[in-house]
Give the backbone structure.
Amino acid sequence: YKTIPNHSFFNLTILALDLSNNLIENIETNAFEELYDLYSLNLKLNKLKFLPTSHLIYLTELILSSNKFEKINRDMFQNLNDLYTLLLDRNDIREIEENSFNRLLHKLDLSNNQINYLSNSTFENLIKLSMLKLDFNIIDIIEKDYFRRLNKLETLSLRTNQIKLIEKESFINLANVFELNLEQQNLEFLY
């Protein structure tokens, strides 16, 4: 299997690193050590299930689309204080632990996963989030508190899920949303 070993980019000043489409399965803990200027990392189209982020603290863009992530752990992205864009679409994500994302995140794409449940605190601390994509998952209920703290949100896309019920006041705090996509659902009740 393909691994990026420790100190792979030692003594390099890289601003953007594209490692997409390489069938990478493992990245050792110190692989990105001393990449202090790195602001964009593209790991799209690999086979990753985990990403060590301890040396990626200055990233503003992280692309993890089309990998093998199944669960988002609370500590996975917490040290990425400057992260603006996080793309996790086209993975196998089934579970997202509470408060897994950094509060300064602006764009989050979780489309094309296996998410069927969101807790009331999944997105609670994302006070700067402007775009949230949850298309092509298996979400069946939108509870009223899922998006309650996302008052900066402008785009919310839930296209092609299995939503049967949207609870009353689910979108009440989304005053800035100009795009809401609920296309292709199983809606039975919209309160």
About this structure: The chain is about 0% helix and 20% strand.
